[in-house]
Amino acid sequence: MGQNLHLTKAQKISVSQAVLPGFALVLDVRSPAEWAVGHIPGSVNLPLLDDQERHLIGILYKNEGPAAAIDQGYRYFEPKEQTLANQLLSLPKDRPLVIACARGGMRSQVMTGFAERIGCAALQLEGGYKAYRGFCLQLFETHNFKNLVVLHGSTGVGKTLVIKGLNNAIDLEGYAGHRGSMFGGVGLEEKSQKNFEGLLVQRLLEVDWSRPVFIEGESRKVGRVSLPPKLFEAMCASRQILLTAPLKIRVERTRFEYIDRQPQCVPQIRELVARLYQDLGHQRTAELLAWFDEGQYDSCFGAILTEYYDKKYDHTLNRMTFEAQMDTSDLLAVVALLEGWA
């Protein structure tokens, strides 16, 4: 198809336009390793160069200059043309196709030109993923996060279940891939900081800020990712609601989440229980493990909730002032009540 695709004049689109909810399908042509570290939520990865090819092109560019690197890039590209064409033509056509690379440079320019030549209309993302990251960071700094309502409560009351049931809510733990507790990473894939922030930005653009926006109370970190400072400050200054539930229900929800719903993770959970000796002592931890091994999960989790989680977090809750307190024994009733919150 020729070696002049990098000279084509591609029609560009700004990040602010491309990330409008539901507006575009983003095709990310960076290497798989680049994409894994951070990408626009919902984007499709169709690498122009694989990780090894990108590495070698970088060395060639450094040692012999851009012309040699471009020539080698086309040698890598040409055998893939038919496969890439088939993949491009199979993409959904219900939204504009936006092609992105690292900085809105040669890789996205080549793929955009190639797409146009095979009859697939495409736009080039101006500034690439780097510009997208700048957009995210600027939004965190400039957004006023008005109308936040923060849900608090002891472990097992169902805060996340309520958040997931609400239409106008931000699920921080879902975006982080971590529940923010000792068992928080069990059965989940933790996100990188960049991917967490991308998912958060996507949701910030989706929710209706003229209404209450519900969010779960968290510390500055959820697992290994950090909340944007302005968001954390806004959460601390916003309206607070306390969710409660009887211990029996908290135990049942904890057991369902970690045992019933994902039995394949039982060995991992046992390892985490064994680490409690640092807080509960060796003798009490041995008793917990005995219950765990005998399948007496309610006894085990009941003790962990009251002797570990509650003691760890109750002092924080006791210092706070709450606008309302709600018993989550009936989750649907609480969700319905909050949906009408003003």
From TrEMBL:
Domain annotation Rhodanese: ranges: 20-141
InterPro entries documented for this protein:
AAA_SelU, P-loop_NTPase, Rhodanese-like_dom, Rhodanese-like_dom_sf, SelU
GO terms, biological process: tRNA wobble uridine modification
Could you tell me which PROSITE patterns the record lists for this protein?
RHODANESE_3 (PS50206)
Sorted alphabetically, the keyword list is: Selenium
NCBIfam families, alphabetized: PRK11784.1-2, tRNA_sel_U_synt
- Its protein name is tRNA 2-selenouridine(34) synthase MnmH
| Species this chain originates from | Candidatus Lambdaproteobacteria bacterium RIFOXYD2_FULL_50_16
